[in-house]
Amino acid sequence: MFIIKAKRFRARGSPCAFSTAAQQRSTGDECGPEDPSDEPKHSLSDCALEHKAIKLEEQVRDLTERYRKALADSENVRRRTQKFVEDAKLFGIQSFCRDLVEVADILEKTAESAAGQAEPSDPNPTLKKIYEGLSLIEAKLQSVFAKHGLQKMNPVGGRYDPYDHEIICHVPAEGMQPGTVALVTQDGYKLHGRTIRHALVGVAVEAQE
Questions:
Q1: Calpha distance 84→198 (Å, rounded)
Q2: CB atoms within 10 A of CB 131
Q3: How many CA atoms lie within 13 A of 51 on its CB side?
Q4: If you average pLDDT over residues 163-191, what whole number do you get?
Q5: Helix (H, G, I), strand (E, B) or coil at 163
Q6: Higher-confidence residue: 129 or 32?
Q7: Mean pLDDT, residues 104-109
Q8: pLDDT at res. 84
């Protein structure tokens, strides 16, 4: 009688044992290693991120290069604009100076004519005063020219320069090197180093036998 009850007890407890084993197998499956099929997904994700990072780096380099070029272009424009403004200040009176030097030419020729007529043997006080007044005006005018960067050329004895001189004749090279300026028929002028009127000159050449 006792044996039968024990068997029944074990028989009744057996479903619990089977159930516990099943639960352990189920729990073991859940806690076991991850599904190997997930590894390729992670690899693809890493490759995509790496490719995206490379593209972003290329875009950053491209934008940086464009920015540097834009800065360089902006600096060049600024310098050209500044140079243009400075030249406008310096040479804005260029045409006015051309007109003034013609007045200076007339004044110089008038003073020379008055000096030639004022002979020492027959001094004329009035003519002498006129000559002195013209000389003072001419000196003052040249002083004003120099103050504003306008200077008269003195090419006699120097080498001929096509940028500053215009040849109107050739003269024999008597005691001068061929190619040098022997005489000036009209003075040339420069404004801040820029020629605004060429000097009309005669250039020395070797005499032909």
A1: 24
A2: 20
A3: 6
A4: 91
A5: coil
A6: 129
A7: 91
A8: 87
Cα separation of 201 and 184, whole Å? 4
CA quadruple 92, 98, 101, 102: dihedral positive or negative? Answer: negative
Residue with the two structure tokens 């991120």: 49
Whole-number pLDDT of residue 49: 85
CA angle 112/114/119 to nearest 5° reads 105
- Of residues 46 and 34, more confidently modeled: 46
Whether 196 and 153 have beta carbons less than 8 Å apart is answered as no
pLDDT at 161 over 50: yes
Cβ atoms of 201 and 185 closer than 8 Å = yes
DSSP-based three-state secondary structure for 137: helix
What distance in Å separates the CA atoms of residue 189 and residue 106, rounded to the nearest whole number?
15
Which residue's entry shows tokens 């003519």?
A: 127
